[in-house]
Amino acid sequence: MVRAAPIPGKPIQIKVFPSRLLQPETAEKLLNEIDQVKGVIRMLVGGKNLPRKVTCGPGTGSDVNHPNREVIHVGDIAFELHVMVGEVIVEVEDESSKEELIRACERALPFPFEFKQGFFIKTKATLVDYGKYGFKSKDDESINLEDERMLGLIDPHANPESNLCIVAGEGK
Length: 172
Prior knowledge:
This protein is an alpha+beta fold. It has a domain at about 10-120: Alpha-Beta Plaits (2-Layer Sandwich), CATH 3.30.70.100. The chain is built from three helices and six strands. The strands form two sheets. Strands 2-5-1-6 form a four-stranded antiparallel beta sheet, with helices on one face. It has a two-stranded antiparallel sheet with strand order 3-4. It is globular, with a radius of gyration of 18 Å.
């Protein structure tokens, strides 16, 4: 099978699959290692949901005190984990950041992991984005977002700020 060479200057998306779900301490260590890699544009953490309340059954509405729902620190920002981390999708500027990203994962994870390269986070606005954020103006086809890196990182049905944490600004 022949694969086309990546286009220079075009962002690459990489999915890191640890061989097990990460504890909050390991997730924090991994995210901080990835945050130190030059060329990282954005990260998306995915995994098993850690709900705040019981949603069905006899205990509906009661609090869930899950021990893995902790506040972690990535860079200078602290945020609460809403998932047990099972995968991390990282978008990097180009191929040169890929090897450094692998080394960062090797330093942070004491067990095996897989790397997959592909397209996992959308890069262009869809109809849902136009419906949620609206247009900037009648003549402008772009959506009304402060930062285009937010595309694909949030639930279209949720409040835009509810599950999004911006660790570094434009200078990264």
